[in-house]
Amino acid sequence: MNKFKYYFILIITTLSLFSCSKDDNTVESVPLRDFAEQFTADNATIEQYLKTYYIDITDPDFADKDVIIEKITDADTQPSIYSYLNKDTFPKLLSREVKQHDIVYTIYYLVLREGTGDAPCNVDGVLAAYKGQYLTESTVSEVTTLTSTLFEEVKYPQQANKLTGVVQGWSEIFPKFKTGSYTENNDGTVSYSDFGAGVMFLPSGMGYYAQGASSIPSYSPLVFSFKLYAIQRFDQDGDGVPSYLEDINGDGYMSYLATGVENPDDTDGDGIPNYADIDDDGDGYNTKIEIKDPLTGLPYEFDQIPTCTSGVKNFLDATCHP
Predict the structure, then answer these.
(1) pTM as predicted
(2) More confident residue, 214 or 38
(3) Backbone φ, ψ for residue 191 (5° rounding)
(4) DSSP string covering 60-124
(5) Which end of the chain is more exposed for a tag (fewer CB within 10 A), N or C?
């Protein structure tokens, strides 16, 4: 009986709260912030972070371990991350410009080690260990404090993340790194070495922007430290040619759907990049049936397409690639 009374009071209270609104038919919405203004604010926050935090590189194998980023307490012995800007040796802080939302973003990324293997393109999958943090600023008594908050950490990844299904910043920075090598252990585990390792600093426009995610507030700059273990190749349009082989200009980035601009990865100029176009040359015949056998010079029939027991088929030279 007491429980019934509790629920009855709760319902009445809830209805009363709704009835107190100014206009029952009006839903207040917060307009999206201007992309250019938000990037300016995010970039200032990121650069402040780069100039007031440092990385611990006293261990010669620091690239193999979880990178430690701490607030500077002694400027003489703790050089800022920003001090590595455009260095010739590792670690080095570099930047990439990305045109998006009618503005040009600058994305900083720290290279701890480049890697020795293959680099992913921006539509591949990456098997990577990573730690994600978001940056926030708070002001108390006219004193502004910058803090970083951990929101996710994956030390032992079990599956690849498709770069077309994560925040855009990942697809812009991971192609700048390479995999390394691996060894299969007797206990069934895998050991990786010489892999690419780094840290990316993403303005919110390259992250979750106004949407936020889980515990991440909207308009939060993001910091991801990562280790690139392996690549998963995809064939997005199912035409038999792995997407990374449809990168015509070889820059590691597939240009997405676009109108009114020339796309270097769009052979027939129909606005659909080759990696997503089943008829790359626009002749009315699917690319899948136009791929030629390098031995006979004739198109493959569907039942003649070579198969691979492992890796990815490369129909351009009829070989298998890991």
Answers:
(1) 0.80
(2) 38
(3) -110, 135
(4) TTGGGSPPPEEE-S-TTTS--GGGGBT-SSSSEEEEEEEEETTEEEEEEEEEEE--SSPPP-TTS
(5) N
